[in-house]
Specification:
Layout (H helix, E strand, L loop, with lengths): L15 H16 L7 E6 L1 H10 L14 H6 L1 E2 L6 E5 L4 E6 L4 H20 L1 H10 L3 H19 L1 H13 L18 E2 L10 H8 L13 E2 L10 H8 L5 H22 L1 H18 L5 H14 L15 H27 L2 H8 L2 H6 L5 E5 L5 E5 L4 H9 L10 E6 L5 E5 L1 H4 L5 H15 L3 E6 L5 E6 L3
Parallel strand pairs: 1-4, 10-11
Antiparallel strand pairs: 2-3, 3-4, 5-6, 7-8, 9-10, 11-12
Helix pairs in contact: 1-4, 4-11, 4-12, 5-10, 6-7, 6-10, 7-10, 7-18, 9-10, 11-12, 11-13, 14-16
Length: 473
């Protein structure tokens, strides 16, 4: 575990000492092979942190009606099971916010933790691709946007602007990360695929016979349907193709979409990234012999809170703490395969590959991870039964909330001649029905900006086809 008694025993004075620790911790991180863009650390009051936790970015489009937003509950939150917030925005520079009334040991831990994140976001390929598309200065971009939205409020009034923001934020997970951030519109003309291949060998032979039949003519380009194929990027589709959207409204949709692209890697790599940052804060603190003994001990106490397996005192939790799972996986990987291999994995994987390839039976058993099934218990409340320890099921259960940015898969299927929009819920790949009340609300939001009938085809919980419709034809 390292030599605890090395930790210096001089008293440290509050957060003044922090500015002395930061460059030393950075130097140690680089000595281990971590690399990162500069990190701007800023001490801020707790109220500022709470705001960032709600709105996702420190200067954000002013939007009061929405409350705590879904994605950011994943992204900006307390560190694991501790009461500490950590907020770092990847970029060049990274921007990290520390709470000014946290004690020195806590902020020392958060500093080391942030360096792990900074290394991850610079070197992980998914982060790199998204940062490259969005640009490396999201915080500044958000500030510029907040000003544009303020101007829209002055021109069009709060309630109109809020209605558009509501609609865009209701769809914030509905992007298609396989497409580029700056995608071109659909081509105006489109060439259908050539006629189908012969159905069987008999037909193929028949076609080769000499004689009267001619080959099918080459397909001719036709006017593209909108959309030409199922379109999952609803923010982009509405921004580009809503029949009467004004420029400032389109702007808001594209701004929310850009932020969703920016945050996607944080969501898709959460277990890896929080685990990596936790591994490095623990290791750097352990090796930082310039830390006073008490600072070190208090920081390690905080570390145990962060990576505690379960929230509260329950022995069994249905929620995996990503800090704990990721931390233990990296610890094991580095012990078994060395740091170079770990650095390579951190560059190449996201949580899907990480969990499927590296969560093994030994670790699952050691961490007491089980699969649960829900059974209605006496009196109608649900009971959770431990089902089995099948590793493949276990991995997929951990990953289930991560599919499609945590949202149901819904695509724009067609636009009618009268401009009405049909959306379809891909319930087969989703494997679950929609919350119909919530779906209806989102449909109302979409209707406000589409301004024609909007229809959504889905299934209810019993598997019956349901069509929700809103707006006058």
């Amino acid at each position: 575990m390292g030599h605890h008694h090395d930790h210096a025993d001089c008293p440290a004075t509050g957060n003044d000492a922090l500015s002395d620790y930061v460059p030393r911790l950075e130097g140690m991180a680089r000595d281990h092979g971590l690399s990162f863009y500069p990190v701007d650390f800023e001490l801020v009051p707790n109220t500022f942190m709470m705001e960032v936790a709600v709105y996702g970015l420190p200067v954000r489009m002013p939007h009061w009606s929405f409350g705590v937003r879904y994605i950011y509950q994943y992204v900006q939150h307390r560190m694991g099971n501790s009461r500490i917030f950590e907020v770092v925005f990847p970029g060049d520079p990274n921007r990290a916010y520390l709470v000014n009334d946290n004690a020195l040991p806590e902020n020392t831990l958060v500093t080391a933790h942030v360096l792990g994140h900074a290394d991850f976001s610079k070197n992980n390929s998914l982060f790199h691709r998204m940062q490259h598309q969005v640009g490396f200065r999201i915080v500044e971009q958000a500030a510029a946007r907040a000003n544009r939205i303020q101007a829209a409020i002055e021109e069009h009034g709060t309630s109109r602007v809020e209605a558009v923001l509501d609609a865009a934020l209701a769809l914030e997970q509905h992007i298609d990360v396989n497409q580029d951030l700056n995608r071109p519109p659909y081509p105006a003309m489109y060439t259908p695929k050539p006629a189908r291949a012969p159905r069987d060998s008999y037909e193929a032979r028949y076609r080769q016979l000499p004689g009267e039949h001619t080959d099918d003519p080459a397909p001719r380009p036709v006017k593209s349907a909108v959309p030409p194929r199922p379109e999952y990027d609803l923010l982009w589709f509405i921004a580009r193709y809503a029949p009467e959207l004004e420029d400032w409204e389109r702007d808001i949709f594209l701004a929310v979409r850009e932020e969703s692209f920016y945050f996607y890697p944080v969501f898709a790599c959460q277990i890896m990234n929080e685990g990596w940052a936790s591994y490095w804060h623990a290791r750097l603190l352990r090796e930082a012999n310039f830390l006073p003994g008490q600072v070190y001990l208090d920081a390690i106490k905080t570390h145990s809170d962060v990576v505690r397996p379960y929230g509260g005192g329950e022995a069994v939790s249905l929620q995996v703490n990503p800090y704990h799972l990721g931390f233990r996986m990296w610890e094991r990987l580095i012990d078994d395969h060395g740091l170079d291999r770990a650095l390579q994995i951190r560059s190449e994987e996201d949580d899907f590959g990480f969990i499927r390839n590296y969560l093994d039976q030994d670790l699952a058993r050691e961490l007491e991870l089980f699969n649960y099934t829900r059974r209605p218990g006496a009196g109608g409340e649900e009971r959770f039964m431990v089902k089995d320890r099948d590793l493949r099921d276990l991995r997929e259960n951990i990953l289930l909330p991560k599919f499609n940015y945590g949202a149901p898969r819904i695509y724009a299927r067609s636009v009618g001649l009268n401009g009405s929009l049909t959306l379809t819920h891909d319930h087969v790949s989703d494997g679950r029905g929609l919350d119909l009340a919530r779906a209806r609300k989102v449909l109302d939001y979409i209707h406000r900006v589409w301004r024609r009938t909007v229809r959504l085809e889905t299934v209810d919980h019993s598997g019956e086809i349901k069509v929700l419709e809103t707006g006058e034809p």
